[in-house]
Structure formats: structure tokens, C-alpha cells
Amino acid sequence: xxxxxxxxxxxxxxxxxxxxxxxxxxxxxxxxxxxxxxxxxxxxxxxxxxxxxxxxxxxxxxxxxxxxxxxxxxxxxxxxxxxxxxxxxxxxxxxxx
Length: 97
Fold this sequence. Notes:
single chain, alpha+beta
């Protein structure tokens, strides 16, 4: 698992990057995504950043990627809505006869 945090000065670029990350993971804060996929996904993201985003960076733009090891996943503390993120949910559908 890894966390991607970003900030772009340009609204359009920031929106495009959010749409790009949405393909790989889920938004946990406005400019923070949690990606629970493989190293291959991370490599794809890094290549896209290098080719499409890094060349257009200004001094106000940033992307931070934090890789979380399996041992550290259990140390994550969540509050509020985020507390339910890892709980299994079971839905029942009512059938009318």
C-alpha cells in the first residue's frame, strides 16, 4: 500500500492528476489517495509523473509518495468516517413476494 499526496498551483493540472490517481486507488482526503495495489501500479504512476507532470512543475507544485510496509499497515490509526474503511460490510436486499 502507498499514499500519494499532491498539490498543484494550476487547478486544471491538479484536477487531471486526481482523475489519474482515481484509476489506481481511492481518495482519503482532498489531495491524498490511498493505493492498495502492487509495485507494478506504483511503477506506472511513477512513469506517468516523470513523463507528464514533472516537466510542467513550478516551484509551487509537489507530489509525495509514501510506501507503507505490511508491518506498518496495522499501526495506522483512523478516526471518524475513516474508522470504517477496513471493516467488512454486509448488505441485505429485501425481496418482496
